Every structure is written in structure tokens, then in C-alpha cells.
Amino acid sequence: MLSHATARDWLFPYADGMLAADERRRIDGHIAQCTACAAELREVRELNLLLVTLPPAPATPVAPFWTRSPSRPMTQGPGYGSFLLGYGPHPDPSRKRGGN
């Protein structure tokens, strides 16, 4: 017998057709006997229908931070993050910790 908690956890994947056949059979049996889960499944299906009718979200520009490539890959030794955390030298060898 499928527990009520497990059945509730499986409602979204069930409604989306993402469960294996044996899992679907188990939840089918639970829903046939549990009016609370049957009602929640109806709500999940209504929510799914609502979500597919929404217009797509507008595209947002990528923050410039994410489009800049690092001056050197992280595999080439400690970078500025290591310096800020206090366990590495400054990435610019001409600068020393605690000053210019």
C-alpha cells in the first residue's frame, strides 16, 4: 500500500506523466480511495493547464559580470578570491598584501 505522504509527493510527477507504470498503478489505487489526494490531483492538473497558457517570460539581458571572461583560468594558481580570503598572494605580483 502506498503511503499518503508518498502519494502526495508523487502527484506532480504523476500529473506530468513522469512515473513508471508500476508507480502509476500504485498511485491510481491510492487516488481511488483517497478523496484528499484526488482533489489535490485535480488542482495540480488545473495548475498545469494554467501554466501552459502563460505567455513566455521576457528575455532579460545577462549581467555584464557573467559575460566577461577571466583574465586567466582558475587552474593557473590562486586568483583575487584567494587573496581576499587571506590564503593566497595578490594576483598582481607587483602588489603586496596590505598595500599597493
Number of strands: 0
The main β sheet shows up as: none
Helix content: 40-55%
- Which strand-content bin applies to the residues? under 5%
Low-confidence stretches: none
Please trace the helix and strand order, writing H or E for each element.
Answer: HHHHH
Count of discrete alpha- or pi-helical segments spanning 4 or more residues: 5
Shape: elongated
Commentary on this structure:
With 100 residues, this protein is an all-alpha fold. The chain has a domain at 4-53. The protein has helices at 4-15, 21-33, 35-53, 64-67, 80-85. Helix 1 crosses helix 2 (21-33). The longest helix is centred in the middle third of the chain and has 19 residues, at 35-53. The model has no long low-confidence stretch (mean pLDDT 77).
List keywords for this structure.
mainly alpha, 0% strand, 100 residues
SSE diagram, text form:
Blueprint: H1 4-15, H2 21-33, H3 35-53, H4 64-67, H5 80-85
